[in-house]
Give the backbone structure.
Amino acid sequence: MKRGNLKYNQRPKPPAVLGSKVPAILNPTDDDISLMLAAQCHIGSKNCESAMLPYVWKRRADGVHLLNIGKTWEKLVLAARIIAPMAPEDIVVISARPYGHRAVLKFAANTGVTAIAGRFTPGNFTNYVTRQYKEPRLLIVTDPRVDHQAIREASYVNIPVIALCDTDAPLKFVDVAIPTNNKAKHSIGLIWWMLCREVLRLKGTVPRTPDGWNVMVDMFFYRDPDEIDKELEETRLAKEAAAAAEAPVGTTDWDVAGGATGAVGAAQAGGLDWSAEPAAEGADWAAEPTGAASWGDAAPATASWE
């Protein structure tokens, strides 16, 4: 039996994926896939929103959903193609999650966009009276659940949103979802690094070669402040130990040239005679005092009361 041109036992073919519609030069390399797997970008959560089901590859025995790395790369390239033609001052990147603070700041430093790391102040996109009022044309967030206030305000003023979405992320008001693990510091940093690199490549700022961009992915990773203080303290102690080891050992031999300093050096240089008597400027301190009896003289006679 047929229904139109489609048989009942024949399933429709899935639509062509994005990777088949873009040049082959935009395809990921083996190193890119290895980095995404090493950073656990494919590890989702046990909960899954219905809108995120197309991005799920399978579900493990323990209930954790695994994301499709190929679709993660496709959406990352799509987001980069949206960002590249726009002016940097018209783009705002936000991360209220602490693991994304350093990533958005580094992304902004390399691309010139505006970064909001930390709490999003309500009214930034809707209340023009506030000092931090902004009118962006594109919003990029790290987690739609944590950055829900910014996404809601963006929907009021028709700002498109690109978001890093886990399997349990709500996609309401999200225009482009990049499926990835947005709860681990390594996966968040890696996706922001890859997005920044792809934007710079599309702009022609850096060449599309393995070593074309000299910024390491570690610069986008979150670092614990306690670990930073510990590393600074270890560096300081190492520098002090190296300086103490390189310092010259002092000599106590006064006969060495240049070893005598201060008054001794001045005396040797001027040829002073330490055994000579000091020159008398006013009074002679060695002379006997005048008008006073000597201690060896006899005591003067005193008058008797008798």
The longest helix spans residues 225-246. The two ends are 168 Å apart (CA to CA). The first strand starts at residue 2 and ends at 3.
